[in-house]
Amino acid sequence: MAIPMSKKKSKPSKKLETKHHQFSDTLLFKILNRIPLAIFLLILIFLWSSSTTIISGKFVHVCVSSRKLNNLYCLSAGTQPNFEIPIPALSNNISTGIKEVVDIVQEVPDPIVNNGSDGEVAFAVKVVEQQLQVQRSWISNKNHVTSCDGKGIYVYDLPSKFNKDLVGQCGDMIPWTNFCKYFNNEAMGEPLVKLGKGWYHTHQYALELIFHTRALKHTCRVYNENEAKLFYVPFYGGLDILRWHFKNVSNDVKDTLGLELVKWLENKESWQKNSGKDHVFVLGKISWDFRRKNEDVSSWGTRFLELDQLQKSIKLLIERQPWHVNDIGIPHPTYFHPHVDDDIITWQLKIIRSNRTSLVSFAGAERPDAPQNIRSILINQCNNSGTNCRFLNCSSGGCDQPESVVELFMDSEFCLQPPGDSPTRKSVFDSLVSGCIPVLFDPFTAYYQYPWHLPEDHSKYSVFIEQEEVRKMKVNIIEKLMTVPIREREDMRRYIVYELLPGLVYGDSNSQLEKFQDAFSITINNLLARVNKNE
């Protein structure tokens, strides 16, 4: 076992130290005086590689990383003290990284940039929204692929250690459950007969397998690399992380498989041709799990997405890193996997006619180790509201049965969706698929995550309440939601059910949807559009 060691340097005398500081201060002043403001701001951005800025509503949390600290030292507390806070990073690709940031710096007026914390928030939000606009520019204007000419998709036949062998370790992946049951029916899980046709007990981390199965059967799949426009790398990186999380292994062990994959790809002419720019990875866990910063042996996750070789490739994840334009969020897998159009239509009619007897519901659990988390406040308000709000306690096993969650959401007008261990929640998609209007408290839960599947105008499908208002007890959520007019609720629900729902679910492995595009089809069409636009 490696033991970290540090060498202490002798301290200089106070006299020498004082002279050194005086000289440094004078020199620093002269240098700063000669640097134009725009260049100085760009330098500050680069310095963010060793510090961190995270947006939480109207607040910016600035943190500093150090090899001497096990965790980031923050000048203000984040919502999750143990959660690795995102570090803004510039892409190695000049056209999509530094150039965009420079353009933004030039567009922001000096008074705004220099206006303390409010200016920092405005600047950071502008960067994130700029990247979302880039991602939205890749959206295909065609509902379905009418021809596969020039749109070939090549699926790598990777050595089994990168995918199939990981599935084979499912019995030993999570100590308290046999994960293998979730891989039945091509990773959709066991059927949920009570909910009807097309419903399965799908695990939230099943995306990698579901996507792989669908890609293998796509009509535009080609078997000759020279005919391909898009290259899909079916690496089950999420399962790779899960198999080590509950075992005492070194970081080198955690990173081994990802490094071996990169080495394997670098030997391929198809990768060398565009340095992986036309390659796509689908990862079934959140981006932070693949961006380990802390090298302490107890640190969670791998460094897979931090590898230089992967910076030009597209990464599809259930939660994106908002500072990386090539990280694209796609929906969490839900329990609904329609086979044909009628499956969707039947469900749409059922939930639009559902008699919603509860105004508000919340399915979740408290976060006692995270005092800044608002869940406890929401639960108290819900429990004290009488019949207006129903709380399903997930900490006592209340959410283990998907039927209980779906039925609760079908019975509710609004579903509370506060951040948990990370900003996003699978429950957001469960509520939308059930016709329940999600109430969000952090823009990173959905608004800055899914540009291909959710509209830019988030008021069409959700209600937003600033979590700081909740934390300071300035608002009663149930009372606020009671003021939303019934007509407005109905309009939002119709939009959710008829406009959004089909594109938020993944059809089954033999999906024959014709009228509708599901989440997979939308993703593939946009990936092909991106490759064609970037040629």
From TrEMBL:
Domain Exostosin GT47: 148-480
Domain of life where this protein originates: Eukaryota
Record-annotated membrane-spanning stretches: none
Family of this protein: Belongs to the glycosyltransferase 47 family.
Topology in membrane: Single-pass type II membrane protein
Protein name: Exostosin GT47 domain-containing protein
Pfam families registered for this protein in UniProt: Exostosin_GT47
